[in-house]
Specification:
heterodimer; A: about 425 residues; five-stranded mixed sheet; B: Arc Repressor Mutant, subunit A; Glutaredoxin; four-stranded mixed sheet; about 10% strand; binds 1,4-dihydronicotinamide adenine dinucleotide; binds FE2/S2 (inorganic) cluster
């Protein structure tokens, strides 16, 4: 059994309730943080832990926190990004649904460290039943003195509010999220300025993912140095992976980033192998926007070494033969699946979710969907494959936010590794389903 | 006249109080959710105008937002809205068959509503339940690991609920 820091108590009966959570040692990190450490020391512990943002970009959390601007007299905010909409990703939902107090505990410590007196959880609108769970946990925490005025007699005041989105993937992008929280359309802003300088209502704001903020709890409890000993290199601590697709045991797993990709797929502790005894064809290990890899590149790095489930190893080989950790949305395709069709659904997804501000993204995603559909229906030409390649290249790097890249990369990787499959569709129109 | 009940108006005030003075525009998304729930599960123009007046916004500010987000219905929908996910992970787990089956059972295509106004079928993109696919959203909750038998049961459940409420 690997080390569990976040989900160790997930199966304790009644852990959703304050009483059980507290009995199991909950809210200790708040006592330690507020009474013994103080804001600067908390940021130091998080820096030492090596924790990297679990929303997908992997930016060092302690460093981001130390960047928050502190202009005189201007309030600061912490915003929890619970928009989770990257296809393949459903780990934050699991944390919020089963361990709501863990998130609230992490939010209290993090808000104190950053000096936020009003912290917002922005949750995707479709997770419509989860705000009730979070609000109940907030009410319980407040009733027990962990929230509200003068927490633990330290003079620190904090309220936590839950805000539902209303169906827009782009609102997971932090500046679009801020726009949405201000009651506007979710159009991303140009960065810099980063939210840490100018965020919600132009105030300094830190936006962090649900899992990142939950990880602050074990970091404070065990100390940043101890946390950093878990994992390997710059992939410290544990990571939640949500696994789906053609595997025997889809679900959310906590890993310590030292296990191999092969073990993750085939071990009974994790995915339990490919469903119906089929063979593995391909995998998208970090959510829909990261490159797909064929089975023969998945288990070994470019150097022929074992590939592990961590940031560096997954990315080894760059785009030529590597992929990314991303949000930890692990999608597995068996030998019967069509990579062309899967890629088409992703292209349709990104077209649907483009906010439309930048023409390369708005037009490019539409074209990619159209051409992929044509190929899938047996109406494509060989030149369409090259056209697709050109379009994705023109989007990448030419947009305000990374949704453009996120739409381009899956198409690029599919063509790079599965060109023969695209050609098969062009050469066998009579066999294509319309 | 379009007007929230008193307890909903109190809720609106509670939402506005979450934000700093003068930032009541931040309440727009939650108040639109509340309006949609309260006034027939869609946002008619007079409803949006009412929300604008409550939050001291120009109506256009409300329309802009309502048209951006996919969960706000700008047209009437059936009493039971089946929103079935069709993105990659659900697709490789059989969502196409489920969508086709629901369509067949109800005699409608995605985007359509049954003549009795009971059911609307809609295809949607990833809802964050990829490990429990195929799935759909029905009201506040997800229905996961869908099979034809489960679909039959859900339709029957909706029909009997509708009959009981009439
Ligand atoms: N979890 C999910 O559902 C999804 C996750 N993603 C992930 O999002 C990632 C892209 O996110 P971005 O926020 O655009 O990445 P980014 O690299 O621009 O930023 C990452 C974080 O670091 C902060 N940051 C970076 N440089 C900074 C500086 N100099 N000063 C202060 N703060 C700084 C940013 O504000 C942000 O919070 C992708 O890699 C993708 O994996 C994308 C879609 C969905
Ligand atoms: C299109 C797009 C969608 C995103 N969606 C999410 C999301 O749903 N959840 C999330 O935590 N981060 C998402 N991000 C990343 C955020 O912009 C930001 O990097 C993250 O919330 C920072 O938190 P972290 O440092 O704790 O990872 C998205 C980024 C992009 C470009
Ligand atoms: S890249 Fe796409 S989603 Fe991002 S700002 Fe531009 S148009 Fe909008
Ligand atoms: S792909 Fe259907 S819920 Fe994610």
């Amino acid at each position: 059994m690997g080390i569990k820091l976040l989900l160790d108590k997930a199966h304790v009966e009644g852990i959703r309730s304050y009483e059980v959570y507290r009995r199991e040692g909950g809210y200790r990190s708040v006592e330690k943080a507020l009474k013994e450490l103080g804001p600067e020391a908390i940021v130091e512990e998080v820096k030492k832990s090596g924790l990297r943002g679990r929303g997908g970009a992997g930016f060092p959390t302690g460093m981001k926190w130390s960047f928050i601007a502190k202009p005189e007299g201007v309030p600061r905010h912490l915003v929890c990004n619970a928009d989770e909409s990257e296809p393949g990703t459903f780990k934050d939902r699991y944390l919020m649904e089963f361990l709501p107090h863990l998130l609230i505990e992490g939010l209290i410590v993090s808000s104190y460290a950053l000096g936020s007196n009003a912290t917002y959880i922005y949750i995707r609108g479709e997770y419509a039943w989860i705000p009730d769970i979070l609000e109940e946990a907030i009410a319980e925490a407040k009733a027990n003195g962990w929230l509200g005025k003068n927490i633990l007699g330290t003079g620190f005041d904090l309220e936590i509010y839950v805000q539902r989105g209303a169906g827009a993937y782009i609102c997971g992008e932090e500046t679009a999220l801020i726009e949405s929280l201000e009651g506007k359309r979710g159009n991303p802003r140009i960065k810099p300025p980063f939210p840490a300088v100018k965020g919600l209502w132009d105030r300094p704001t830190v936006v962090n993912n649900v899992e990142t903020l939950a990880a602050v709890v074990p970091i404070i409890n065990m100390g940043g140095e101890e946390y950093a000993k878990i994992g390997v290199g710059k992939s410290t601590g544990t990571k939640l992976i949500s696994a789906c697709g053609n595997i025997n045991k889809p679900g959310v797993f906590e890993i310590d980033m030292t296990i191999s990709v092969e073990e993750f797929i085939y071990s009974d502790e994790y995915c339990g192998g490919i469903r119906n005894g089929k063979r593995l064809k391909a995998c998208i290990p970090g959510g829909s926007s990261v490159p797909i890899l064929p089975a023969n590149k998945l288990f070994k790095t470019a150097k022929g070494e074992t590939r592990y489930m961590n940031y560096e190893s997954l990315a080894d080989g760059g785009f030529a033969s590597g992929t990314m950790m991303g949000s930890g949305g692990f999608i597995v395709l068996d030998e019967d699946q069509s990579v062309v069709k899967h890629t088409y659904t992703l292209a349709r997804f990104y077209r649907h979710e483009s906010c439309g501000q930048c023409s390369p993204c708005r037009e490019g995603t539409g074209w990619m969907e159209k051409i992929l559909k044509r190929i899938l229906e047996g109406k494509g030409k060989m030149s369409d494959i090259d056209l697709l390649w050109d379009i994705q290249r023109k989007i990448e790097g030419n947009t305000i936010c990374p949704l453009g890249d996120a739409a381009a990369w899956p198409v690029a990787a599919a063509i790079r590794h599965f060109r023969d499959e695209f050609e098969w569709y062009v050469n066998n129109p009579e066999l294509c389903l319309t | 006249m379009i007007r929230f009940s008193d307890d909903k108006l109190a809720k609106v005030q509670e939402i506005i109080a979450r934000y700093p003075e003068g930032k009541q525009k931040s309440a727009l998304l939650p108040v639109l959710h509340l309006a949609q729930e309260s006034f027939g599960n869609w946002l008619d123009v007079p409803v949006m105008d009412y929300v604008a007046s409550l939050l001291s916004l120009e109506p256009i500010e409300v329309y802009e937002v309502a048209t951006f987000y996919s969960m706000y219905n700008l047209k009437p929908v059936g009493k039971y809205l089946f929103e079935v996910c069709q993105t990659g992970p659900c697709m490789v787990s059989g969502s196409d068959d489920i969508i086709a089956y629901i369509g067949e059972k109800l005699g409608i295509k995605p985007g359509e509503t049954t003549a009795d106004g009971l059911f609307t079928l809609k295809t949607v993109e990833c809802l964050g339940a990829c490990g429990y696919a195929p799935m759909m959203q029905l009201g506040k909750h997800f229905r996961e690991h869908l099979t034809k038998e489960k679909v039959d049961a859900i339709i029957a459940e909706c029909r009997s609920n509708a009959a009981a409420n009439n």
